[in-house]
Request: fold
Amino acid sequence: MKRRHIVQIAAATLAAPAFTAQAQTFPVKPVKLLVAFPAGGPTDITMRVLADNASKILGQPVIVENKPGAGGTLPAQQLQTAAPDGYTVAQIPLGVFRLPYTTKINWDPVKDISYVLNVTGYAFGLVVPADSPLKTWMHFVAWAKANPGKLSYGSTGTMTSPHLTMELIAQKLGLELLHVPYKGSADLMQSVLGGNLMAAADSTGFAPQVEAGKLRVLNTWGAERLAKFPDAPTLKELGLDMVQNSPFGIGAPKGTPPAVVKRLHDAFKRAMEQDSYKTALARYDMVPMYMSTTAYQKFAQDTFTKEKALVEKLGLAKAS
Reply:
């Protein structure tokens, strides 16, 4: 037993410098950043700026690959089969933490991801075409009550934060809405502008269309009104005691060496502090929202617990 213990200590001693050396040389090739939504939307646009900034800091390209669909959870799922070497990282939207409650999976969103850092979060709201007869939220509610199941709204996917928030609102107000899921903001905006939907619940990726006079904001979902849409009331102002924001960050495969996680953390933290990233975020009423590796891991655990309660309240939990 003593001999085995000595061998184990020796192995650990030899492994420690290897991890340190790996971190010092990392990266020696491009890093792949999986983004959960399609090209051209606000997530893609802002994450590409972040990736470009991080590329300069790391000395290797950070290449964005879009993996839309499944409510934004595909990148996290792909981490489960990626090598834990730091060369594949992924955006982790909030929907990842509710996945086990709605779908049968064989991995744990808290334990099976190495959380690197949180970078920002979405601001949300509800928009309608500028020529819609639904001029205000009161018009929206009245029409929905008079036409159960006929008021169509789109979101960026089933079980995403916009979808679940709208379902919670509908539950509170006794509304029956027709939900139409899309893979991301770009597709959703095309559909509502094309007259295929009566409304869209989304992050503020709709800002350019609102500013162009093509869409109108009925409400926003933060604690306070958004500076870009000062006339749009919050849900709280409308009598709904709700605030919805959706932090997201970057994760790596489980088992990624801590020194490599730290190298990624430090690079992306510097990348998110640059003016180019702040400017890209501001276009969509988003701001840098930093959480350290430790804080982001705790956020993952806390959110995992909270999302279970929300899914169960809406009656959307999978059958056991």
Notes: The chain is about 40% helix and 20% strand. The longest strand covers residues 113-122. Residues 245 and 251 are 19 Å apart (CA to CA). The two ends are 45 Å apart (CA to CA).
